[in-house]
Amino acid sequence: MWISRQMKAPAPTADADLGMTTIAGDSVGVVTRGEVRALPVYGPGGYVWMPESGAAVLVIKGGPGGEEQCVAGQQQALIPEGMGPGEVYLFTPGGNSVYLRSGGEIELRGEVRIQGSLTVNGEPYAPCEC
Question: For the whole model, what pTM was predicted?
């Protein structure tokens, strides 16, 4: 029929896009092909991340027509020199970091605040009363 020749196929859509955050927080605004606001942010279990404004992020699209979207990650920053496979480096824009090395070392950068008890080599920590 002539109507079937008049209908156009829908434009192809990507399942994921690289976007730039415009609104920071736990519910962000992102520009991909246009700005979308109030997107939820997802990350690995046990990890909480709030992207800052201007960050390059991965936006995953789902649902019929790709209208359901979420921010799933950020473009990886500069990898620390000498970082090996399986190591984890957590950092903030302010320069604080936690570096878990495969040899069992943990490097902390920034102010460390401990709430609760602290044990060293299995013994409760007691400051030196020198």
Answer: 0.67
Which residue from 15, 11, 9, 30 is spatially nearest to 75, judged by alpha carbons?
30
Pick the closest to residue 15 from 31, 28, 32, 34 (CA basis). Answer: 32
The closest alpha carbon to 72, from 91, 93, 51, belongs to: 51
- pLDDT tens sequence for the chain (130 residues): 556 666 666 655 568 999 999 998 878 999 998 999 999 998 887 778 888 899 999 999 888 777 789 999 887 777 889 999 989 999 888 889 999 999 999 999 999 999 999 999 999 999 888 8
* Domain extent for 24: 16-74
Q: Is 9 a member of any domain?
A: no
